[in-house]
Design brief:
The chain has one domain. It is elongated, with a radius of gyration of 23 Å. It contains 12 helices and no strands. The chain has 300 residues and is mainly alpha-helical. Helix content is 81%, strand content 0%.
Length: 300
């Protein structure tokens, strides 16, 4: 990477190009650290809900897929965009504080990406042998896991190409990933909103997580926007996400806290319980058929 920037800066003063990262705000720095901690905390209710319920009921498979891919696109973008600041740190153009501050976006987005993909990982691990898990749905989630892993490998190749060529290619790759992230962020909420609307209950989807993340999303977007050297492609997807997640949160609030009392239909809790009971009965029936088949094979 250093060789790449040496080629790019050979025609000008590299220190002057690093001036954009000087004068970082201490308040913004502290705020960004708190936001990073908040990101981790915000996902805990969702992790807890998956562990307790041991089912993916209520979670859209497409939501898991698109959410994970969106995070990888965003992480790829910020790794490339923030590489200039890392070069400035390497050549001594920035002091320690400004250097650390210049990488806060990467730190925050790295945490968010890890936390988002961990939802998919937990669903795969926790629900694998659960009697509450729809087996056909689990197969689809397994395929999602494979696709996300493949996407991660492709992103590593993109980063390698970006650092091996010139700034035009690097920023082109970064911008494409930023745009794809924003697009998937919009798209990913559509299947989840549809799933929640169809089921009339949130299921394993955590309202607590969304209560933290929705307002936090707007704050997080602001910290990315006002950060030194910020690029629009790194924060626009989070603004869109906050708006759409708010829509999903309102839908969940309606089904859980209002629909059961205002409509003559079943409450969200009753609908979820019926869905889980159906899955359990189907799995038990399948197990009995499997045992019966094995018994017949032994007799033969």
């Amino acid at each position: 990477m250093l060789d790449y920037f040496k080629r790019e800066n050979s025609g000008g003063d590299g220190f002057e190009k690093c001036a954009v990262y000087d004068g970082a705000s201490t308040v913004n720095f502290v705020f960004s650290i708190l936001i990073s901690i908040g990101i981790i905390i915000s996902y805990i209710p969702q992790y807890r809900r998956i562990i307790i319920k041991r089912t993916s009921e209520g979670l859209s498979t497409n939501f898991l897929f698109l959410g994970s891919c969106s995070s990888i696109f965003t992480l790829t973008n910020i790794i490339l965009v923030s590489s200039k600041a890392r070069h400035c740190c390497a050549i001594g153009a920035l002091d320690t504080f400004n250097c650390i501050n210049s990488q806060l976006n990467l730190f925050q987005i790295g945490i968010q990406c890890t936390c988002a993909i961990l939802i998919l990982v937990l669903v795969l691990v926790i629900t694998k042998h659960s009697i509450k898990q729809d087996k056909a749905e689990y197969k689809r989630i397994e395929n999602v896991g494979k696709l996300v892993a493949a996407h991660g490998i492709i992103s590593l190749l993109q980063i390698t190409i970006g650092f091996s060529t010139n700034s035009t290619v690097l920023y082109t790759i970064a911008n494409i990933n930023g745009l794809l992230s924003a697009s998937l962020t919009v798209i990913k909420y559509v299947p989840q909103i549809y799933t929640t609307y169809r089921l009339k209950h949130p299921g394993t989807l955590s309202i607590g997580m969304m209560c933290i993340q929705t307002p936090g999303g707007f704050i997080f977007t602001a910290t990315l926007y006002f950060a030194k050297g910020s690029h629009w492609s790194s924060w626009v997807s989070y603004l869109v996400a906050a708006l759409l997640q708010g829509t999903l949160l309102l839908l969940c609030f309606y089904y859980v806290y209002f629909r059961g009392t205002s409509d003559s239909g079943e409450s969200a809790e009753e609908l979820e319980r019926e869905a889980i009971e159906r899955i359990i009965n189907e799995n038990r029936h399948e197990e009995l058929e499997h045992e019966s088949s094995n018994e017949d094979d032994r007799l033969l």
